[in-house]
């Protein structure tokens, strides 16, 4: 994602040498654990060498073959783990999105990871910007490395275009973890990478492969994502979480497909708000302007993009 929403540069040349194919995302042969040649396993050792370094944000990086939820697992470690712990799963059997929605995908078909952040320099009231920050970092990395234009749907969905249609290819889930001096946030990031049309969990879903990605090799995608997240988080933390000073607010707004659109916000208490999404306020809330000109800031709820009348 860039402010102009243009596709980025070619994939990172440090990618895993195992060949992948975006043209046949669901192909497989044989019955062994690594029989799907288009979905090779990630190498924890390779990722650690590339990402875990003295003075860097990422302190420990683990890859597990299968787990219920990386967010749940990492939250359980929040008190003992230092900031910068990364947990990646090849498969999640109980992945969740916002509003407790389930998130399922075939093994090794996507990026399923969580990171532990403890931004002590930032006032707690600004921690709500973290899922939006993760969205900016992820969209930017995917645009540059996969060569797929990636937009943001407020507050936490990653959108790609498949056959001229806007599709959800990923999402962000932020959860508080730990307490006291060990308090932090676990950010979960999920991205559909090689899912084929017959593997999509719902008709409105998409994947990088279906969007015409130049590369579906998860190794360089994970590297680019975590490097982008480290950069954006570092700038935001250095600015004490100020969304304007860190340029987070303006960058999110520039890449947000929700702004300028007619939307329906389904709010707590079975209330719905229909109008145009006109701005993102200083707290990361979506400002909706209704037909009578009134403005309301939405901080929680489900937002649906409506067709223009």
Automatic annotation (TrEMBL):
Residues 51-237 form the BPL/LPL catalytic domain. CDD domains: BPL (cd16442). One of its GO terms (molecular function) is biotin--[biotin carboxyl-carrier protein] ligase activity. It holds the Pfam family BPL_C. Residues 1-33 have a biased composition (Low complexity). This is biotin--[biotin carboxyl-carrier protein] ligase. Residues 1-40 are annotated as: Disordered. Its EC number is 6.3.4.15. Signal peptide: none annotated. Keywords: ATP-binding, Biotin, Ligase, Nucleotide-binding. The keyword Phosphoprotein does not apply.
């Amino acid at each position: 994602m860039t402010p102009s929403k243009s596709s980025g540069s070619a994939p990172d040349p440090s990618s895993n040498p195992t060949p992948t194919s975006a043209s046949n995302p669901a192909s497989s042969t044989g019955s062994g654990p690594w029989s799907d040649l288009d979905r090779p396993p990630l190498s924890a050792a390779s990722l650690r060498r590339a990402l875990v370094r003295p003075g860097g944000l990422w302190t420990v990086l683990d890859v597990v073959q299968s787990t219920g939820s990386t967010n749940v697992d990492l939250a359980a470690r929040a008190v003992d783990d230092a900031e910068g712990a990364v947990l990646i799963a090849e498969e999640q059997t109980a992945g969740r999105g916002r509003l407790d929605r389930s998130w399922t995908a075939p093994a090794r078909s996507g990026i399923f990871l969580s990171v532990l952040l403890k931004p002590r320099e930032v006032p707690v009231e600004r921690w709500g910007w973290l899922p939006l920050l993760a969205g900016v970092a992820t969209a930017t990395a995917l645009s540059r490395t996969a060569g797929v234009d990636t937009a943001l749907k407020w507050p936490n969905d990653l959108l790609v275009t498949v056959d001229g249609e806007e599709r959800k290819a990923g999402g962000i889930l932020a959860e508080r973890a730990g307490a006291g001096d060990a308090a932090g946030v676990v950010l979960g990031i999920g991205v559909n990478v090689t899912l084929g049309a017959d593997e999509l969990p719902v008709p409105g879903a998409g994947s990088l492969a279906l969007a015409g990605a130049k590369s579906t090799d998860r190794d360089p995608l994970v590297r680019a994502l975590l490097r982008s997240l480290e950069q954006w988080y570092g700038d935001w933390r250095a600015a004490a979480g100020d969304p304007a000073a860190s340029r987070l607010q303006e960058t999110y707004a520039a890449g947000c497909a929700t702004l300028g659109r007619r939307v329906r916000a389904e709010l707590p208490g079975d209330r719905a708000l229909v109008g145009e999404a006109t701005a993102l306020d200083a707290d990361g809330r979506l400002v909706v302007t209704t037909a009578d000109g009134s403005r309301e800031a939405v901080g929680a709820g489900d937002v649906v993009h409506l067709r223009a009348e």
